[in-house]
Design goal:
With 460 residues, the chain is mainly β. It is globular, with a radius of gyration of 22 Å. The termini are far apart.
Length: 460
């Protein structure tokens, strides 16, 4: 049954969850089931609980049906996965962390000691895989609407006659999307402050998932976004944006994951992003937003770019600003990159800092990054560019960047790129420390596709 959105706010109750393992109601008529797998979970030695196996689509080249399940845990659990359409020879549980499992002819069973976001892949099939989201236990739960609380309960919600298929969230509001709730609309936070979007529900096929513009102190925690037309989270001049426990899939052009323009004080933690464009893209001026970007932290992320970059910094800026907008003080740490696939050399880079439009990118650290697979693409791409498709003038500078404790364990990648544009528009003060490709240290400039407009490149 379709429930049209009502903005009437009634009684709400906030509670502290104490459950050790929480599973969710079975599905929703608005979200299809996938019968490729049967998935169960239990506390160690406890009773098995069935999970609802959602159908999600992945990969823009030729969208394929994959599977998703989720639950919450705060103590060790056992997971059972049965492959319903045939036997198998081998299984990968990624990110790869030496996970052990027991197996039968068409099933596996393994233990999870802590919340993790995983891909379970039988015989190397990464297009029809199982995405298993073991969330931390939800600690704030609402059961009804109330003043300052917008509640979406189990069922399908549409915005009725609201324009642009979107739901506007006012200041000082907590939005709670309950397990089993599916919202078929964009959530818009514009010119607002002190907004929280929480829960374990789903945003399904919105224009964008969540849009945060000209706003302060916005938190997003726990929701899943399935196949938006454009970005999962779009930010323009957002200050104090927190994103936690977000999971997303996309299969369309320009369906990036988290895209931020001229934002400041951003904290992203424990997210799973599988997209058919950039997973994370951080820019300066674009469209209505100006002023540069600063102070981003991204940690404990799992990134999977079926197309384009897992991490992309610096492409858009203000070409009319002769001094250049600055994007600075970015920290990426404890990140697993499961895939990078891009056949256009100009758009390669599992970790890309590519600046145009007079941009300056500086003071950026990549630390403890594990890259498992590059179908096509490069590990690094640092470049000052002039791309007529997106830029009116070249970028200015990339400076003071550190890549530390980076490992790549795949084969067939392009050589990493490091290219300035001119003597004045150059790359400087770049440090590579303990960077390994299949166990071999990357420790010399000859390992790169580079030009003469770079200086002070250090290998440790």
């Amino acid at each position: 049954m379709i429930r049209k959105l009502s903005l009437c706010l009634a009684l709400c109750v906030a509670t502290t969850a104490a459950a050790e393992l929480r599973t969710y109601p079975e599905g929703n008529p608005g979200m299809p089931h996938n019968d490729d797998y049967t998935v169960k979970v239990r506390t160690i030695g406890g009773e098995w609980r069935n999970l609802y196996e959602y159908k999600v689509q992945v990969d823009m080249d030729k969208p394929q049906d994959a599977t998703m399940v989720q639950f919450d845990m705060d103590e060790p659990v056992e997971v059972f996965v049965k492959k319903n359409n045939g036997d198998f020879s081998a299984v990968d549980i990624r990110p790869l962390k030496n996970d052990k499992y027991e197996r039968g002819r068409n099933w596996i069973e393994f233990r999870l000691d802590e919340p993790r976001y995983l891909s379970v892949e039988f015989d190397g099939d990464r297009l029809h895989n199982l995405h298993l989201f073991a969330n931390p236990v939800e600690t704030e739960i609402y059961t009804e609407s109330a003043p300052g609380v917008m509640y979406f309960g189990p069922g399908t919600h549409k915005p009725g006659d609201l324009p642009n298929n979107q739901i506007r969230i006012p200041s000082n509001t907590t939005v709670y999307i309950a397990p089993g709730a599916v919202i078929k609309a964009k959530l818009l936070v514009a010119d607002a402050e002190n907004v929280r979007i929480l829960g374990r529900g789903i945003l399904d096929h919105p224009i964008r998932g969540i849009e945060v513009t000209d706003s302060k102190n916005v938190e997003i925690d726990g929701v899943i976004v399935v196949n938006p037309d454009h970005y999962t989270v779009f930010g323009g001049c957002a200050d104090g944006l927190k994103i936690r426990n977000l999971k997303t899939f996309s299969t369309k052009g320009w369906s990036d994951g988290i895209d931020l323009m001229c934002c400041r004080n951003v904290d992203i933690e424990n997210v799973f992003v599988r997209t058919s464009d950039d997973c994370l893209a951080f820019y300066n001026h674009r469209w209505l937003w100006k002023g540069g970007s600063s102070d981003f932290t991204v940690r404990r992320a799992v990134l999977w770019a079926d197309i384009a970059h897992p991490i992309n910094v610096g492409g858009h800026g203000d070409p009319d600003n002769a001094e250049g907008e600055v994007i600075e003080r970015l920290r990426f740490s404890d990140i697993d990159i499961l895939e990078h696939d891009e056949d256009d050399p100009d758009y390669c880079g599992a970790m890309a800092i590519v600046v145009g439009d007079n941009n300056i990118a500086r003071d950026i650290v990549f630390d403890d990054i594990r890259v498992e697979s590059i179908q096509e693409g490069a590990l690094f791409h640092l470049a000052i560019i002039f791309n007529p498709k997106y830029n009116k003038v070249p970028g200015q500078k990339i400076e003071n960047v550190t890549f530390r404790n980076i490992s790549y364990t795949g084969y067939g990648e392009y050589r990493p790129v490091m290219k300035g544009y001119s003597d004045q528009r150059n790359i400087s003060n770049i440090t590579f420390e303990n960077v390994t490709v299949n166990g071999k240290k990357l420790d010399r400039l000859s390992d790169f596709n580079h030009n003469e407009y770079i200086k002070n490149i250090r290998f440790k």
